[in-house]
Amino acid sequence: MKKLLNTLYITRQESYLHKERETIVIKQKDEKLGQFPALTIGNILCFGQVSVSPFLMGYCAEQGIGLAFYTEFGRFLARVQGKQSGNVLLRRTQYRWTDDEQRSAEVGRVIIAAKVANSRSVLQREIRNHGNNILLEKAIVHLAASLRSLKVAKTLDEIRGIEGDAAAVYFSVFNELLRNTGFAFGGRIRRPPTDPVNALLSFVYSLITQECVSALQGVGLDPLVGFLHRDRPGRASLALDMLEEFRASWADRFVLTLINRKQIQINDFKSEASGAVRLTDDARKNLLAAYQERKQVEVMHPYMDESVPIGLLPHCQALLMARHIRGDMESYTPYMVK
Amino acid sequence: MTEDDYLYISALQHCAYCPRQFALIHVEQVWEDNRYTAEGNLLHERVDSGVAEQRQNRRFERGVLLTSHQYQIVGKMDLLEIEANSESDSKRYFPVEYKRGKPKVENWDRIQLCAQALCIEEMRDVKVEEGAIWYWEVRRREPVVIDEALRAHTIAIIEQAHVILKSGKTPAPVQDKSLCRACSLIDICSPDQFRRDRSMKYLESIFDENRVVDISGDSE
User: Fold this and answer.
1) Most A CBs within 10 Å: which of B196, B198, B207, B218, as the mutation test of the A interface?
2) Residue numbers in B near A329 (CB within 8 A)
3) pTM for this one?
């Protein structure tokens, strides 16, 4: 199994990153903030006013170190992409399959089934830990019906329909999972998120999306061409497909933990004139630290039967996706919480 | 197929070692260096340089370019010793291959040497009876008899390699796990995962609404 490499989150405004021999150096004006051997780094995520030397950019591209830029609020700006892997056969097959309605439906179906199953698991666990809840129970029954429908779904439209319905049901009871007064959830709002829970979800979803982009590139797949998510210029559609496996199982649970353990508080958020809500700098740092910590926790991979750190799950799934496309497995095996 | 597409002789040992490794490298273009491969590259760099030498009735040619149209393979011979026989007009062609490691029981290295011999036989219209492999780790030259059995094995590997390249398919992992331990591609290949396809069974459990989920280890 591949080793989980470190991710650098650069949040200090006016930081400057450059290359010194085989290390990455972080400076702010004349002060050296840190220095890391490049071999230990898998990804660098820059938030806000952070500059990177072109030589370091080239080096990251060459070494396969993911480099992405976000606004301070976590809105994606750009990523630096290196040379593509030489596995042309893999990518050609990916393009052929994603162009084919039936193939796309086959892969999409199992991904959404895992998403629904994982969402259901989150709700079931809540009941196990905190007692009966009529709203959750009804949702759990509904999601079982969603799974049954998915089992026989044939077209992408059907699958997307079932997914939309299941997501609506799941988010309609999401508020039941929050046990920190001050945090309420009235539904999923995205552009921009106008309440703290939505802001947290969006931020963590975008962090994990970048993990998926990196992982997919690492195995030679094209993150921009997906099965479920249709082409949109610049959108990492395949990474978004893969994210579906991790929304409930990783992102939502992480956000719930932060809120319910009071690691994030209501005064950790600032409102903009537009109504958009974002984390304060300190809160964002805390979140990233907790996120990093969470990535080190080992879980048993449900298909590979191997203990892997959570941070390596995107790589595992990317590998399974690639090998499915190359014919090693009859079906793709999405991540399912076991 | 044009000469540009001919199979490299140096690829044959991968195919002999494990057809999946061969496919991952030559069909899927994944390549991961490990300590063994890096040292091997260094050794060959030292050996390839140099002009041909002549000592009495023996000629030493280095880095000899090889092609066989019959087998559609190309390559380079580390060292070719040509001994002129003073009585007859015949010459004795003796290929030598340089290897980083130790002599092996298996034929992997010998197949490479034999493939080189097949090329020289075609190119110069001669018969190559024997050659040698220089093993750097033990500083010893191992003689190799280019007999019928070795030729048959080599030709079989060449054919298998061509089939894999043409089909573009990657074979399943081999059963012998000891081969996997020494393979630099173990993380990419993930042999334990793909020896048996359990994906359909896994799917059943995703759709099983009565599945009991554990999610322990979280107090949330």
Assistant:
1) B207
2) 194, 197, 199
3) 0.85
CA A215/CA A217 separation, integer angstroms:
5
Please list the alpha-helical segments (H only) found in A173-312: 196-218, 237-246, 253-260, 281-296
Residues of chain B found within 8 Å of residue A257, distances taken between Cβ atoms: 218, 220
Nearest chain A residue (CA) to B216 = A125
Which residues, listed in sequence order, are joined to residue B7 by a DSSP beta bridge?
Answer: B73
Q: Are B2 and A58 in contact (CB under 8 A)?
A: no
The conformational region for residue B106 under phi > 0 = left, psi -120 to 50 = alpha, else beta, is beta
Evaluate if residue A178 carries a pLDDT over 60.
yes
**Residue A76: CB atoms within 10 Å:** 16
CA pair distance B54, B83, nearest whole angstrom: 10
Closest Cα to residue A284, out of A71, A31, A23?
A71
Question: Distance (Å) from the C-alpha of residue B172 to the closest C-alpha of chain A?
Answer: 7
Residue B139: its H or E element: none
Which ipTM value was assigned to this complex?
0.83
Tell me: the pLDDT tens digits for B89-122? Answer: 788 999 999 998 889 888 999 999 999 999 999 9
**Rounded to an integer, what distance in angstroms lies between the CA atom of residue A321 and that of residue A316?**
9
**Residue A181 burial (10 A CB sphere; 0-12, 13-18, 19+):** exposed
* Bridge partners of residue A300, in order along the sequence: A307
Q: Whose CA is closest to A146, among A164, A162, A135?
A: A162
**Hey, are the CB atoms on B170 and A326 less than 8 Å from each other?**
yes
3-state secondary structure of A236: coil
Of the candidates A88, A303, A323, the beta carbon closest to that of B202 is on A303
Q: Most A CBs within 10 Å: which of B25, B28, B170, B212, as the mutation test of the A interface?
A: B28
Phi, psi of A241 (to 5 degrees): -60, -50
Closest chain B residue by Cα to residue A125? B215
Q: Do A89 and B28 touch (CB under 8 A)?
A: yes
Instruction: Quote the CA–CA distance of A238 and A199 in Å, as a whole number.
Output: 23
Q: Print burial letters for A97-130: b (CB count within 10 Å at least 16), e (below 16).
A: bbeeeeebbbbbbbbbbbbbbbbbbbbbbbeeee
Mutate: best of A107, A152, A255, A323, partner B, most B CBs <10 A: A323
Beta strand A15-20 pairing with A50-52? parallel
- The pLDDT score that the predictor gives to residue A152 is 94
Query: Does B187 sit within 8 Å of A327, measured CB to CB?
Result: no
Say if CB B185 and CB B22 are below 8 A apart.
no
Place of tokens 């990153």: A17
Would residue A8 be called left, alpha or beta, if left means φ above 0 and alpha means ψ between -120 and 50 degrees? Answer: beta
The sign of the CA dihedral A130, A135, A138, A140 is negative
Give the contacts of A80 (CB within 8 A, at least 6 positions apart).
Answer: A57, A60, A61, A67, A68
